[in-house]
Write a structure and sequence with these properties.
42% helix; six-stranded antiparallel beta sheet; alpha+beta; single chain; TATA-Binding Protein; 322 residues; 12 helices; 11 strands
């Protein structure tokens, strides 16, 4: 009798289990689990009153200086005979005081000194793409709660709202690279027994430029960080600290067609510095993995284009640092 009851109980339990629905797994999107690294601020602009010049003036008025503001449609038309956007500008900007404070603590912030943004417009709206606080903190290896970083991000946000008072951040899901800085760093032993530090770096940079220019790389900006940012504060920690803004024309043209927000990363900064108490100089730049990951670039042709440009630059730097 007991075995019969046991059999009935077992069958009942199996039937109940089979009829009970399995709970659906909780869906967690990338946006919920990881903050975005690139943000897009957008505003209606039917009458065209918002333009690259008015945006530059808004940034400048808050001390966030637009260093360069390049109309890319002009060279695009000249070389490729077509453009994608009514307006497409790549700009470089910097707040001198906050840049110094961050560089003093984190030399790797040079990879974002100056910062980049893209300004692009269709028939109805103007857009500005910049890095988020998380994006800046990740690639420059800065704590996200650093007060100088927080102040910098607040100023950028204020500048965006001043440039486009009716604007808002677009709800566009862009990925994050997690916490990996995705930086590439090389070092080279420096012998200053026969040259001054200034002579040494000038000779190195002349070779670098001579190798890069025939490959189609452009240098829209050069910043002597030691002279322009460190010297005014009496900081003599470095023999030299320079940043180059580097762009490969055909790469930004092709990538920007589908990903105009790529201007948050381009032109990208190449850093070269040497501290007085070190025998090595450091060479830093951001990997194209930042573009691929944070802009959701999936097509293989675009990836190949980015990796090819990066490998060209790496090849030159490895040759010069042997």
């Amino acid at each position: 009798m007991q075995s019969v009851l046991t059999l009935i109980f077992t069958l009942t339990l199996l039937l109940f289990t089979a009829c009970t629905p399995t709970p659906s797994p909780t869906k967690t999107t990338k946006k919920e689990s990881q903050p975005q690294d690139v943000q897009i601020f957008s505003s209606k602009n039917l009458d065209g009153h918002i333009n690259p010049q008015s945006i530059e003036e808004a940034f400048d008025s808050l001390g966030v200086t637009i260093i360069s503001n390049n109309n890319m449609n002009l060279p695009f038309k000249k070389k490729f005979h077509q453009t994608t956007f009514k307006v497409y500008n790549l700009a470089l900007f910097m707040h001198n005081e906050l840049s110094y404070k961050l560089l003093e603590k984190y030399p790797s912030f040079g990879t974002l000194t100056p910062l980049s943004l893209s300004i692009y417009a269709d028939k109805e709206r103007m857009h500005i793409a910049t890095l988020t606080k998380h994006g800046i903190a990740r690639v420059a290896q800065i704590p996200e709660d650093d007060p100088d970083l927080e102040r910098y991000v607040e100023l950028i946000n204020s500048a965006l709202h001043k440039a486009m008072p009716q604007g808002h951040y677009e709800k566009k899901e862009l990925s994050s690279a997690g916490e990996d800085p995705l930086q590439i760093e090389l070092t080279k032993e420096v012998d200053l027994s026969k040259h001054s530090a200034e002579e040494y770096v000038e000779e190195f940079e002349a070779e670098f430029e001579a190798e890069m220019e025939p490959l189609g790389f452009l240098f829209p900006n050069f910043l002597n960080v030691k002279e322009d940012l460190f010297a005014p504060h009496g900081n003599e920690e470095y023999d030299f600290y320079h940043t180059y803004s580097i762009c490969k024309f055909d790469v930004i043209y092709k990538i920007s067609k589908e990903h105009p927000e790529a201007g948050a990363w381009a032109p990208c900064s190449f850093v070269i510095y040497k501290k007085k108490d070190e025998k090595q100089m450091h060479l830093l730049f951001l990997s194209v993995e930042n573009w691929i990951t944070t802009l959701n670039i999936e097509d293989e042709a675009s990836k190949e284009l980015l990796y090819k440009a990066q490998n060209m630059m790496l090849s030159v730097l490895k040759k010069l640092t042997k």
